[in-house]
Amino acid sequence: xxxxxxxxxxxxxxxxxxxxxxxxxxxxxxxxxxxxxxxxxxxxxxxxxxxxxxxxxxxxxxxxxxxxxxxxxxxxxxxxxxxxxxxxxxxxxxxxxxxxxxxxxxxxxxxxxxxxxxxxxxxxxxxxxxxxxxxxxxxxxxxxxxx
Length: 147
Fold this sequence. Notes:
Elements (H helix, E strand, L loop, with lengths): L9 H40 L2 H10 L1 E5 L6 E5 L6 E4 L5 E6 L8 H14 L1 H7 L1 E3 L14
Antiparallel strand pairs: 1-2, 2-3, 3-4, 4-5
Helix pairs in contact: 1-3, 3-4
């Protein structure tokens, strides 16, 4: 037997909705907290691998520069998980963007660390799998520093 909406007292229906909403909000909050813990671990690992200069760049601009292992070119890795690596020229202008990332569901710190290690240890193989993209839009590194 199905109950009709008008047969259910309004306060009882409102109570059921409130209980369901509270459960949903608690679940969302728990997932967010778990994600923040995972993201913090990713950045802690990345920071452990950054040089003091790279760490300073990241803290100020949310990006850091690395030097390719074979060409000696400078690359800028900006905060993000894709389309966040730029080849830079001598005048600090981006020449071309490179899109590559490790496989899997990783947080930004883990992705950026993998990109750093890939360019610093095997630049040629990294660029063979990377996809170039035009750097006609301002890269993320040009965003103002966060306060």
